[in-house]
Amino acid sequence: GGPASLSRFRGALVAAVLGDCVGGEFEGAEEVPMESVLQHLSSLDDETKGNGILEYSDDTAMARCVVQSLLTRAGFDERDMARRFAKEYSASPGRGYGSGVIQVLKKLSSPQLSDVYQPARDQFNGRGSFGNGGAMRAAPFALAFPDPADVKKFAHRGAMLTHSCSLGYNGAVLQALAVHLSLQGALDLPQKFISTLITEMEDVESSEATLNDARILKEAEKPFCERLHRVSDLMNRSKVSIEEVISELGNGIAALHSVPTAIFCVLHCLQPRECLPENYGGLERTIAYSLALGGDTDTIACMAGAIAGAHYGIEAIPQSWIKCCEGAEDADMNAERLHMLYQQT
Ligand code: 8NA
Ligand code: MG
Ligand code: MG
User: Fold this and answer.
1) Ligand 1 touching residue 33 (CB < 6 A)
2) Alpha carbon distance, N-terminus to C-terminus of the chain
3) Which residue, 66, 81, 185, is CA-closest to 136?
């Protein structure tokens, strides 16, 4: 489809859910042989197995809250979004939430709470969380707002409800920007895609709060920019091993060790790869490759899925995968509603 087509919206939201659902199988595994990934994925095609439904985790549970809030309020409303996070957590606490964020979600359900951003600020002795929980639910912001300035502003505020450390919320801004660019067709020019992200993040990471957090955590002056330069270096190499990707970019639960990784997965899988089946299209390659990195597989595949889905569109997603994943059909319907909201704004 053309820029911001309905197919791209559907692809983004549905592939994010698929990444989360199929990635759950390997979450936290240190090493994941590609053979196991391909076996897992091909079992989804095998209807005779009747392997039931793959459940979504915190990634999708919170993204659904973001979507519902943006749609119901026709824009960003922090109190409404916070209330939905809290309600969702208390209804289904067993979705695999990070151990820290649970405290925030419990505090957000208090009716006495006057500042919905305060519980997040109190995390980790006042430093805030740098986990990828803000980034994992950031894609819908790119589907609700056409103006990149709004995408950045609201992805930031939406993440701040649980992640007040800049290394957490800037990951959400980066993820939302990557989905925004991909929706516009920017992955047709991969080199320009990554250099645009670097330029954007140069600006985002020049804030006083960001520079200060990076100093305290002994990271590079502009941590996400530094990682995006690594992504750019890796994508220009003819051969890259999984071990190198993990050691250069990471596969962990910190936003810094997973958002640039997800972006790399998408870029790396734009072309056919030796380690992946020839009959796989780009979207299937991206999901499979993300899982083979191990670590926080559901979240990395969810984020890579959103970016790749926005590029390839809904037609690239195997029907058999959609049928196996809880929440995939809902995501498809919500993508259509977000597409209407996007066009109204
Ligand atoms: P979070 O805010 O609780 O952060 C996740 C974890 O990161 C925390 O529990 C801490 O261990 C660590 N952390 C974050 N900020 C700091 C800090 N300032 N100082 C010290 N440690 C810190 O949760 P989240 O919403 O960011 O979730 C992140 C990931 O964890 C998600 O992928 C989610 O699915 C979850 N999770 C991951 C695994 C896994 O094995 N990869 C398993 C279960 C849950
Ligand atoms: Mg999860
Ligand atoms: Mg995860």
Assistant:
1) no
2) 21
3) 66
**Which residue has 């824009």 as its token pair?**
75
User: What angle (nearest 5°) sits at the alpha carbon of residue 182, between those of residues 336 and 301?
Assistant: 85
Which residues contact residue 183 at a Cβ distance below 8 angstroms, ignoring those fewer than 6 apart? Answer: 3, 4, 8, 9, 12, 142, 143, 310
- Would the pTM of this model clear 0.90, i.e. be above it? yes
Torsion of CA 233, 239, 245, 249, to 10 degrees: 0
- Upper half-sphere CA count for residue 305 (Cβ side, 13 Å): 35
Ligand 2: centre distance to CA 133 (Å):
8
Asked whether residue 212 carries a pLDDT value surpassing 90, the answer given is yes
Q: Which two tokens stand for residue 210?
A: 């960001």
Ion ligand 3 — residues with CB under 5 Å?
Answer: 296, 298-299
Judge whether 134 and 331 are in contact, CB under 8 Å: no
220 Cβ contact partners less than 8 Å away, ≥ 6 residues apart: 214, 226
User: What does the pLDDT look like over 236-275, one tens digit per residue?
Assistant: 898 999 999 999 999 999 999 999 999 999 999 999 999 9
Contact of 9 with 146, CB cutoff 8 Å: no
Among 334, 255, 327, 297, smallest CA distance to 19 is for 297
Mean pLDDT value across residues 5-33: 97
Mean pLDDT of the chain: 97
Q: Could you report the predicted ipTM of this complex, rounded to two decimals?
A: 0.96
Average pLDDT (284-297) is: 98
For residue 296, the CA-to-ligand 1 centroid distance in Å is 10
What angle, 0 to 180 degrees and rounded to 10, lies between the N-to-C axes of helices 190-204 and 259-268?
A: 170
